[in-house]
UniProtKB/TrEMBL annotation, chain A:
Keywords: Lipid metabolism, Membrane, Oxidoreductase, Transmembrane, Transmembrane helix. This is Fatty acid hydroxylase superfamily protein. The lineage of its organism: Bacteria, Pseudomonadati, Pseudomonadota, Alphaproteobacteria, Rhodobacterales. The keyword Transmembrane applies. It comes from Leisingera aquaemixtae. One of its GO terms (biological process) is lipid biosynthetic process. Its main location: membrane.
From TrEMBL, chain B:
The keyword Transmembrane applies. Keywords: Membrane, Transmembrane, Transmembrane helix. The chain crosses the membrane at residues 6-24. This is Uncharacterized protein. It comes from the Bacteria.
Amino acid sequence: MTGQISFPDVTQLAVPFLIAAILAEFLWIALKKRGGRYETRDAVTSLIMGAGSVAEGLLLGFIAWALLMFLWELTPLDMGTSLWAVLACFVLDDLRYYWVHRLGHRVRWVWASHVNHHSSQHYNLTTALRQTWTGTFTFMMVVKAPMVLLGFHPALVLFCGGLNLIYQFWIHTEAVGRLPRWFEAVMNTPSHHRAHHGRNPRYLDCNYAGVFIIWDKLFGTFVPEQDHDRPDYGLVHNIASFNPLRVAFHEWAGIFKDMARPGLTLKQRLLYAFAPPGYSHDGSRETSAGIKAAHLARHPEDAGTPGFGG
Amino acid sequence: MPLELLLALVVGGISGIAVLLHLAGRSRQAVLTAGSARSAWLRHFPNDCVTKVLPAASGQAALVLTEGGPGLLWAFGADTVGRPLAAARVRETASGLRFEFNDFSAPGLSLSLPDDERRQWLELINTPAEAA
């Protein structure tokens, strides 16, 4: 199909509101003395990661755009830009986000890009902006291909992706407890996403949703936040740097270092890149499955509870 | 949005938030005690069996001895990070010890330690785990 369509870049337009919301959250926490923690260098690192991510989009966004426009030229379908088309695209894009996000936690190559978002030991609105600088190199833009081939214009697909990202901003907070039951049942919420950011064994690899939590319930990855096991934020092996370059590239450095080890087979080298995070050829590291098993060995009473097969 | 305006918003926003947080006392480092260092180590390495914890007099770090070998825990902003020392290079400096972790996610760390503390730490770091 051919055709010129443009939508606003919602992530750029949202910048003033994001800054205002961060200030409001911090003031609320400072006044109420509850609802989260802020640390100067952690917050600044997150904000710089967010700015860098926007810059990466400006510099390298043309690659995804070129691919999607190439597919748009091929497809005979055109869903148009009616309200229904936008709504359908938004829901499909959220399903796309779920699977990309799930791959982002289960394939080290994609995790290398996403890990920085989980690298803060804090959980506040600045954490939402701790976004990747290397998303283009994961080639996950190909997951958008089916939507374009179905007849959704690339501009509409990217617009919905931007809206999805904006929605996820406000759920990065401890200032909001739980929302009404109907909302928690359908939508991704601060409570669900706190669990996703938990490094506790219970919460590893859960709640990948962007906007609708129903995807996790449908695909068996939903774990509700537990009051007796509050999420402990950060990585299983926390990074020791506030340097944005180290935050952005540390897992890539780890992949290439592991792949270059002497004495490995080709299969082992490839597994260091594409197996789940924590893979090692000699069993010296643990994947999330191993971490959960080790936890259950220490705490057998947790077997069958949420996150441990319950 | 014009690029100049976006740039001004981003730079102004980041700077303003940094100044506000600093003035509000959010730049304070964690101070480690034996108890908090033990808890923090087990938070990072829940499978470890900690045998001894030696917090530095400054409170900025702690040497943690485990059945698997020594590790270093140190203040990282308001939180902590830890690394086992098995793969690390440790050397004396004029004011304390320098740790190189051979890990891109953990750049080297220089700690100021008084002479007696530095000697004790070096001795324990170089002692095989089963003898510690």
